[in-house]
Amino acid sequence: MKVAVLRFPGTNCEFDTQYAFEKLGHTTELVWHENDTLPENIDLVVVPGGFSYGDYLRSGSIARFSPVMKAVSAYAKNGGKVLGICNGFQILTEAGLLPGALKRNNNLHFISKHQTLRVENNDNAFLNQCEKGEVLNIPIAHADGNYYIDDEGLAKLEANGQVLLRYCDAEGNRVVVNGSVTSIAGVCNETKNVFGLMPHPERALEAILGSEDGIKMLKGFES
Amino acid sequence: MTAIVNVFLKEGVLDPQGKAAHHALDSLGFEGVEDVRIGKQIVLQLSTDDKAKAEAEVKEMCETLLANTVIEDYTIEIK
């Protein structure tokens, strides 16, 4: 698999993301935000975490107008797979490639810790290696992860199986972590080729660092 | 001309900063505060003297970049 990893001024998870996919045996290529094209023959675009443009105005609001994002939109509209992690998720919602928006955590804190997540839907190109209802342990690190969508939008997400992950306790019961609507941690678009989540699967590949659960998430894209 | 844009979270969208400030005002003993909403003000200096044109342009700026209309409302004042 060939993975394009985007890089904006302020991105800081691009090397972790490269490390993760290369550890799983894939090739990666960093793509600077000023490029108006993506590399050829790629299988996945990852918009990694960080603080693009210093989170000025709103997280992701300026990065979405970078030249490379036009290429990403076109790629996604052609059915190409795109994964946004943390700031990448914020950028994809600002770009309108994913529904909803991410606002300041309800406790106003930057939250950085391991967090259990429940797999809500696995009939997609991302979480197909996970069981529905399975509890995963993945780190989170964000200040603006409070997912908002209106009731009508939420009903559509639910009906179409677009809710990917929810924050939960070790038994899988929903918990409030940052104030997200119904504890949502990740969603996909209607055609299920654009994915976004606040947690960092690329940081959960080694037991010595607390969890290997990120492996089965990222491996989903291989099939 | 000067355009003053105020951006606030929509009614019904919980404003965590407003809520925190409200709690702080309560604990400081300020009574009678029923709600606190915190937004941001963006002041733009425009070269045009045409008020209608300025208003239309600033509206487009709000829709495109300055506000996220999924969660935010905005007002525009041109002076």
Average residue pLDDT of chain A? 97
- Strand count of chain A: 11
Order of helices and strands of chain B: EHEHE
Distance between the termini of chain B: 6 Å
Number of domains of chain A: 1
Shape of chain A: globular
CATH domain topology of chain A: Rossmann fold
Query: Over all CA atoms, what is the radius of gyration of chain A?
Result: 16 Å
Largest interface: A-B, 19 and 11 residues
Could you state the CATH homologous superfamily of chain B? Phosphoribosylformylglycinamidine synthase subunit PurS
- CATH superfamily membership of chain A: Class I glutamine amidotransferase (GATase) domain
Taken in chain order, the helices and strands of chain A follow as EHEEHEHEEEEHEEEH
Anisotropy-based shape of chain B:
elongated
Structural class of chain A: alpha/beta
Helix content of chain B: 25-40%
* Beta-strand residue percentage of chain A: 25-35%
- N- and C-termini, Cα separation of chain A: 10 Å
Kindly provide the name of the CATH class of chain A: Alpha Beta
CATH architecture of chain A: 3-Layer(aba) Sandwich
CATH topology of chain B: Mth169, Chain: A
Describe the main β-sheet of chain A briefly. Answer: 9 strands, mixed
Task: Describe what you observe in this structure.
The complex is a heterodimer of chains A (223) and B (79). With 223 residues, chain A is of the alpha/beta class. Chain A has one domain: Class I glutamine amidotransferase (GATase) domain (Rossmann fold), CATH 3.40.50. Chain A is built from 5 helices and 11 strands; from the N terminus they run βαββαβαββββαβββα. Chain A has helices at residues 14-23, 67-77, 87-94, 151-159, 213-219, and strands spanning 2-7, 27-32, 44-47, 82-85, 101-103, 111-119, 135-142, 146-148, 163-167, 184-188, 194-197. Chain A has a 9-stranded mixed β-sheet with strand order 2-1-3-4-11-10-9-6-7, with helices on both faces. In chain A, strand 10 and strand 11 form a beta hairpin. The radius of gyration of chain A is 16 Å and the shape is globular. Chain A starts with a strand and ends with a helix. Chain B has 79 residues and is an alpha+beta fold. Chain B has one domain (2-78): 2-Layer Sandwich (Mth169, Chain: A). Helices cover 35% and strands 27% of the residues of chain B. Chain B contains 2 helices and 3 strands. Chain B has helices at 16-27, 51-66; strands spanning 2-9, 40-45, 72-78. Chain B has a 3-stranded antiparallel β-sheet, with helices on one face. The radius of gyration of chain B is 16 Å and the shape is elongated. Classes of the chains: A alpha/beta (223), B alpha+beta (79). The A-B interface holds A 57-58, 61-62, 65, 93-94, 100-101, 103-108, 146, 148-149, 179 and B 9, 13-14, 16-17, 20, 65-66, 68, 70-71.
